[in-house]
Each structure stands twice: as structure tokens, then as C-alpha cells.
């Protein structure tokens, strides 16, 4: 029981991290020259911004609660995250990155809170669209000066993001399916974070 309470508290805390922890475009570009250093930095990167972490946990939790099979929306998220990161690495200007990231946190939080069901194709498409913008932001932040470093950054980012999805799926399956109020509370906190981010950008 204590483990369950601890895990639930971690999920809520992750969903409601302070806005000061946000990781956005241009805050950390370049400077990671080796494969391992780029891998390690990029692996940690999704955990350092409340917006990215909350969105990825929400994708996992929402998928576990409502999408069958549950892994397809998170897989689409990781795939489009990598595509967006490649665009960022290439210096491609992607309009509306910050508003779309904020909107993703808001929408995904609401989907968890109301436990909205939809066909996996639509769920994967929605997750993928949001993921592209998250990936573009990561790509701008983590752009490296060599192909080897870029490969390390992509691998680390994909793995870190996938682990957050798995954590969200575990929280969804183990706790939120049994305690629907927890899904409403965590989803609501995530949606509030997204709304605050949009207000901040206005």
C-alpha cells in the first residue's frame, strides 16, 4: 500500500512540476561532441522540463486507460518525436512550437482526466502530431556538431521518452484503472499546467 501511495504521489508531482522547470527552444543548444555525452544529455533531457515530462507521462497513462493496443500511441509519439528532432537538427524552422507544446499538455491532460476513448489510429495520429513539435524543440536544444553526436542525441532522447511513456502506462494500468479519481486528479493537474503555459505565452 505504501508503494502505491508513493507511486501515486510521484505521478501527481510529475504532472504539476513548476513552470520554472520548462525546457524550451534555444536553452541548451550544442556543445555535446561525443556519442556517449550526447546520449546521456539527451536521455536526461525529457526529464528536465515539466512540459515534456508531463506530456509523455500523459500519453502513456491515457493509452493504458483507453487505447487498444496501448503501445501504439506511445510508439507513434516516439517515432514522430525523432522526426521532429531531425527537423530541429537540420535547422528547419517549425512554426508554433511553443504553443503546440503547451496545447499538447493541456489536451493530453484533459484526455487522461476524462479518460477519452478513441480508435488507436486516431490516438496515434494525435500523439504523433504533438510529438513532432516536442521533437522539434528538443532538436533545436540538442543540435550537435557531428553526425555521431547527433545519433547519440537521437538515441538518448528516444529512450528517455520511451521510458516516460512506459512509466505513464504502468501508472495508468496499476493505479488509475483501479482509482479513477487519481486519473481525474493527475489529468486535471496536467491540463492546468498546459493552460498556465498557454497563458504565459499569450
UniProtKB/TrEMBL annotation:
Signal peptide: 1-23
Record carries keyword Transmembrane helix: yes
Domain of life: Bacteria
Record field: transmembrane: 47-68, 75-93, 99-114, 121-140, 146-169, 181-199
UniProt keyword list: Membrane, Signal, Transmembrane, Transmembrane helix
One Pfam family named in its UniProt record: HupE_UreJ
Keyword Transmembrane in record: yes
Protein known as: HupE/UreJ family protein
Species this chain originates from: Comamonas sediminis
Amino acid at each position: 500500500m505504501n508503494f502505491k501511495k508513493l507511486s501515486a504521489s510521484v505521478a501527481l508531482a510529475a504532472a504539476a512540476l513548476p513552470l520554472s522547470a520548462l525546457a524550451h527552444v534555444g536553452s541548451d543548444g550544442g556543445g555535446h561532441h561525443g556519442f556517449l555525452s550526447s546520449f546521456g544529455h539527451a536521455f536526461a533531457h525529457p526529464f528536465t522540463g515539466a512540459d515534456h515530462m508531463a506530456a509523455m507521462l500523459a500519453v502513456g497513462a491515457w493509452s493504458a486507460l483507453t487505447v487498444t493496443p496501448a503501445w501504439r500511441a506511445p510508439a507513434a509519439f516516439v517515432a514522430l518525436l525523432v522526426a521532429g528532432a531531425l527537423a530541429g537538427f537540420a535547422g528547419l524552422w517549425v512554426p508554433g512550437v511553443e504553443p503546440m507544446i503547451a496545447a499538447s499538455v493541456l489536451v493530453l491532460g484533459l484526455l487522461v482526466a476524462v479518460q477519452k476513448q478513441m480508435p488507436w489510429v486516431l490516438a496515434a495520429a494525435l500523439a504523433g502530431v504533438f510529438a513532432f513539435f516536442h521533437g522539434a524543440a528538443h532538436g533545436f536544444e540538442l543540435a550537435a556538431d557531428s553526425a555521431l553526436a547527433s545519433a547519440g542525441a537521437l538515441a538518448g532522447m528516444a529512450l528517455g521518452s520511451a521510458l516516460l511513456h512506459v512509466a505513464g502506462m504502468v501508472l495508468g494500468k496499476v493505479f488509475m484503472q483501479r482509482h479513477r479519481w487519481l486519473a481525474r486528479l493527475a489529468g486535471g493537474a496536467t491540463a492546468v499546467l498546459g493552460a498556465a503555459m498557454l497563458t504565459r505565452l499569450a
